[in-house]
Design the sequence.
């Protein structure tokens, strides 16, 4: 193992019919933003769910901050992989206070932390609005705020820019860059190659449930490089 905060070796999880992920190795180091890109159905969400213990792998090993999943300190992890969890009848602030308590943040610190994240993600105007009255994008911001507010060491986000407006995309970008600079290991999936190029230190491409290569975030024409990798892999698989 490498000392990375997220380490996966040989992860395989197959669903009935054969879809899923196979033989995936992945590392995310402290201070690194590592992006996963792939077409719909490539296996990004499945990989994240296995990394977070939401799905059991058929084979392989996951370590978070050097610990097996059963020993992981989940208070040090922030993840948003399925729909953002929000209590519909609670307002933005109450939802965030609850999320802070679920991450074991002491009560005295939680209030201060919640105000900071409301400002960071431009959610101040929604502090007293019930979640059920929020737009999809603001509910996504609330979910991101709940995930990031306790400054976890490990962050896993599945398509976090979905439903965000351009201001939300920028606010999230800055929040992630700040946390990486402070030493967090961040794994993020996205379909937006331009956005990924702005934030990621490393980009891993997944296709058909396997890692098929990497893209240089500073490289020219990321889209072309992405499709070249996917096309080559599809061609290889259809002829082998
Ligand atoms: N619970 C499940 N049962 C059966 N098949 C599943 C299940 N979950 C995912 N799959 C299949 O596994 C494959 C990978 O799906 P996954 O959701 O991980 O892809 P993805 O890369 O996250 O896609 P998207 O970009 O559309 O979110 C797909 O073929 C999907 O249909």
Sequence:
């Amino acid at each position: 193992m490498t000392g990375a905060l997220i380490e996966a070796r040989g992860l395989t999880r197959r669903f009935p019919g054969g879809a899923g992920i196979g033989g995936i190795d992945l590392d995310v180091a402290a201070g690194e933003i590592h992006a996963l890109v792939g077409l719909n159905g490539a296996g990004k969400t499945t990989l994240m769910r296995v990394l977070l213990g939401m799905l059991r792998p058929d084979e392989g090993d996951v370590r978070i901050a050097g610990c097996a999943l059963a020993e992981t300190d989940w208070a040090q992890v922030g993840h948003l992989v399925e729909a953002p969890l929000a209590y519909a009848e609670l307002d933005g602030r109450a939802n965030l206070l609850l999320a802070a308590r679920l991450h074991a943040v002491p009560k005295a610190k939680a209030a201060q932390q919640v105000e900071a994240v409301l400002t960071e993600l431009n959610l101040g105007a929604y502090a007293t609005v019930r979640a059920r009255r929020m737009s999809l994008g603001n509910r996504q911001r609330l979910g991101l705020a709940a995930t990031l507010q306790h400054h976890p060491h490990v962050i896993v986000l599945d398509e976090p820019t979905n439903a965000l407006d351009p201001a939300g995309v920028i606010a999230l970008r800055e929040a992630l860059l700040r946390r990486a600079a402070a030493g967090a290991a961040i794994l993020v999936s996205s379909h937006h190659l331009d956005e990924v190029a702005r934030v990621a230190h490393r980009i891993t491409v997944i296709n058909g449930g396997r890692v098929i290569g990497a893209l240089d975030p500073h490289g020219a024409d990321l889209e072309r490089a992405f499709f070249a990798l996917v096309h080559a892999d599809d061609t290889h698989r259809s002829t082998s």
